Amino acid sequence: MRPVTNWVSVVLDLPLGGPFDYRATTAVAVGDRVIVPFGHRKMIGVVVDLPSEPSYDPALVKDVELVLQDIAPLSQSWIKFARFAAEYYQRPLGEVILPALPSPLRSLAAYQGKRAAGGPVARLDKRRKAAQSEAMQSVVPTLSTGQQAAVDAIGASEGFKAFLLFGVTGSGKTEVYLHAAAQALARGRRVLMLVPEINLTPQFEQSLRARLEPVAGPEGVAVLHSALSDGERLRAWLSVQRGQARIILGTRLSIFAPIDDLGLLVVDEEHDASYKQQDGLRYSARDLAVWRAHDLNIPIVLGSATPSLESWVNTQKKHYQRLDLPDRAREVTLPTVRLVDTRRLQMEHGLSPHLITAMRERLANKEQVLIFLNRRGYAPALHCNSCGWVSQCSRCTTFTVLHRAHQGRHQLHCHHCGFQQRVPKACPECGDQDMQPMGRGTQRIEEHLAELFPEARVLRIDADSTRKKGSAQALFASVHAGEVDILVGTQMVAKGHDFANLGLVGVLNADAMLFSQDFRAPERLFAQLMQVSGRAGRHSGHGEVIVQTGYPEQAVYQALLKHDYTGFAQHTIREREAAALPPFSHQALLSAEARELQTTLDFLTTARDIATTLATQLGSAEVITLYDPVPLRIVRVDNMCRAQLLVESTHRPAMQQLLRHWIAELNQDPSARRLNWQLEVDPLEI
Ligand code: ADP
Ligand code: ZN
Ligand code: ZN
């Protein structure tokens, strides 16, 4: 009998090209992982097609070395999803598919050599212990009318429908997700819930497990996020792929989980920028979730107190259905907001007398206080009082940030390239020793607060204080346990947390974000202020928010005073429409970096010329705007100079078509090989 010959198209994790054709002499299916020779090495790839004949001379086609059968093939519907993501974000399919797998499943070493006996899946299964359920019984509250209406609407939807759950902070959106999820599980379907940052919301996982494990079983809940170890991730991923996990909770990467039978998708805090991946495949997990729900013909719930303007406009166009939760669930009022005009005030270490007095009262009343300052470190820079020298990074065009390091010693850190150095004993310019911290970061505020309120227990939560795995969870647990009186933190403390006893929120230095060039800055600032304000008075009511600002008349602050998202959105949408900015147009960003700025500008100019010609050839010149290449605001990072070119269009298909041709030409262009460049579709920051 002749051996079977199957032609297979295989994608590999390579930045260029593919799929690549191979010959298989054993049975193979679309979605199988295979080991194939590539150049001088071997790689693990995924079969995405079984063509009837190879795309080039069969004599040159190499053989598949091994078909890996330790897991079931990836499903057709999942590959279709990956294909959409690759096409939409203009990346090779292999760069989507392979990184979506847990690393042991795509690492050759895991399948070769002595240690590889059986492969990573077999090894894991051997070690597998019965999962233990940590769920206590939890109390299910009676839903409010608004919550019930939302749950009913989601449950009644047949096929694809996008809901925007627009609920003020503390309105009980989580409860709606849990009920909607339980409905989907009861129908035998599975649920994917996305949250912006899972290690910050252990409470979410807890209530999810407590409430849904009884329905889904102890192995029915899987959690996927990037802080898992390889083994943990593989275990969770396998339970998803094998259908054991019925409900999957995860951060943005879990949108690529291989789930069949999905019945509901939930994206909590849908406006959150963490849904955007900022390197490699620069996808928006929220946008992909909407596509996936549409493709699978199932409902999706996007929840937020401050929806992205993209989603808001979609409700206005009736593409999405709005579900409103205008009141807090616990029958408490939203906090009162006070703007303290700092222009005429004598401040004490950056704190206004109003804030200090309010803090005293709350602390005397045994309530917790949150001080929000979105700037980590001790001070944004070190400054020489004699000559005006300011600490700067030698590799980047930025200031280095003063940090309090071990044993109270100070260091200078660059937040862009990671460079760290000791504080110079004397000014490098003039030799004077009178150098002072300039401005304030969370560490310095923490220090002041400890002096000002010696009786109070002060805790700082930011990226520096939570570097160790699990430490954020422990710190938040101590806040919830009432072991902290004053919490100081960056945006890490602003999101999601249901603090029971927090009465007062003080916001320092929000103005820093007010005058950014990025057209989305006011939207981001407003969302952040609403979020952090929403931490006050969640259980007892009578919460207060004090915002220190030199610009109280700004629209952002005026809207915040009234908790007026709708007014703010209307105002901002009008501005965007007038300027034809997203969501009234679509953008893509070509960025490049090289040692010399001129190299990047030259490349982008060439790229712009290519795009201009293409747009004319494709007949889309009228609907596409190509801007001039410009250097980035922080032009040099880690000794690389950066510039970008913005493309804008009111017509998405025309834009997609242009980008496809453009990428293909750029990949061929010799000048493109001399530097790093990338194309980002729907950039969030420009
Ligand atoms: P959101 O995510 O909308 O900010 P949460 O889901 O955290 O709000 O809910 C806020 C608080 O209200 C939580 O402590 C939650 O347990 C409580 N809660 C939610 N729904 C109800 C309800 N129907 N009755 C009483 N309390 C509720
Ligand atoms: Zn000096
Ligand atoms: Zn630097």
TrEMBL record:
<dbReference type="Pfam" id="PF17764">
    <property type="entry name" value="PriA_3primeBD"/>
</dbReference>
<dbReference type="Pfam" id="PF18074">
    <property type="entry name" value="PriA_C"/>
</dbReference>
<dbReference type="Pfam" id="PF00271">
    <property type="entry name" value="Helicase_C"/>
</dbReference>
<keyword id="KW-0547">Nucleotide-binding</keyword>
<dbReference type="InterPro" id="IPR001650">
    <property type="entry name" value="Helicase_C-like"/>
</dbReference>
<dbReference type="InterPro" id="IPR027417">
    <property type="entry name" value="P-loop_NTPase"/>
</dbReference>
<feature type="domain" description="Helicase ATP-binding">
    <location>
        <begin position="154"/>
        <end position="325"/>
    </location>
</feature>
<feature type="binding site">
    <location>
        <position position="430"/>
    </location>
    <ligand>
        <name>Zn(2+) 1</name>
    </ligand>
</feature>
<dbReference type="GO" id="GO:0008270">
    <property type="term" value="F:zinc ion binding"/>
</dbReference>
<feature type="binding site">
    <location>
        <position position="393"/>
    </location>
    <ligand>
        <name>Zn(2+) 2</name>
    </ligand>
</feature>
<protein>
    <recommendedName>
        <fullName>Replication restart protein PriA</fullName>
        <ecNumber>5.6.2.4</ecNumber>
    </recommendedName>
</protein>
<feature type="binding site">
    <location>
        <position position="396"/>
    </location>
    <ligand>
        <name>Zn(2+) 2</name>
    </ligand>
</feature>
<keyword id="KW-0413">Isomerase</keyword>
<keyword id="KW-0378">Hydrolase</keyword>
<dbReference type="InterPro" id="IPR041236">
    <property type="entry name" value="PriA_C"/>
</dbReference>
<keyword id="KW-0479">Metal-binding</keyword>
<feature type="binding site">
    <location>
        <position position="384"/>
    </location>
    <ligand>
        <name>Zn(2+) 1</name>
    </ligand>
</feature>
<dbReference type="GO" id="GO:0005524">
    <property type="term" value="F:ATP binding"/>
</dbReference>
<dbReference type="GO" id="GO:0006270">
    <property type="term" value="P:DNA replication initiation"/>
</dbReference>
<feature type="binding site">
    <location>
        <position position="387"/>
    </location>
    <ligand>
        <name>Zn(2+) 1</name>
    </ligand>
</feature>
<comment type="subunit">
    <text>Component of the replication restart primosome.</text>
</comment>
<keyword id="KW-0347">Helicase</keyword>
<dbReference type="GO" id="GO:0006310">
    <property type="term" value="P:DNA recombination"/>
</dbReference>
<keyword id="KW-0238">DNA-binding</keyword>
<dbReference type="InterPro" id="IPR005259">
    <property type="entry name" value="PriA"/>
</dbReference>
<keyword id="KW-0067">ATP-binding</keyword>
<dbReference type="GO" id="GO:1990077">
    <property type="term" value="C:primosome complex"/>
</dbReference>
<keyword id="KW-0639">Primosome</keyword>
<keyword id="KW-0862">Zinc</keyword>
<dbReference type="GO" id="GO:0043138">
    <property type="term" value="F:3'-5' DNA helicase activity"/>
</dbReference>
<dbReference type="GO" id="GO:0016787">
    <property type="term" value="F:hydrolase activity"/>
</dbReference>
<dbReference type="InterPro" id="IPR042115">
    <property type="entry name" value="PriA_3primeBD_sf"/>
</dbReference>
<dbReference type="InterPro" id="IPR041222">
    <property type="entry name" value="PriA_3primeBD"/>
</dbReference>
<dbReference type="Pfam" id="PF00270">
    <property type="entry name" value="DEAD"/>
</dbReference>
<comment type="function">
    <text>Initiates the restart of stalled replication forks, which reloads the replicative helicase on sites other than the origin of replication. Recognizes and binds to abandoned replication forks and remodels them to uncover a helicase loading site. Promotes assembly of the primosome at these replication forks.</text>
</comment>
<dbReference type="InterPro" id="IPR014001">
    <property type="entry name" value="Helicase_ATP-bd"/>
</dbReference>
<comment type="similarity">
    <text>Belongs to the helicase family. PriA subfamily.</text>
</comment>
<dbReference type="GO" id="GO:0006302">
    <property type="term" value="P:double-strand break repair"/>
</dbReference>
<keyword id="KW-0235">DNA replication</keyword>
<feature type="binding site">
    <location>
        <position position="417"/>
    </location>
    <ligand>
        <name>Zn(2+) 2</name>
    </ligand>
</feature>
<dbReference type="GO" id="GO:0006269">
    <property type="term" value="P:DNA replication, synthesis of primer"/>
</dbReference>
<dbReference type="GO" id="GO:0003677">
    <property type="term" value="F:DNA binding"/>
</dbReference>
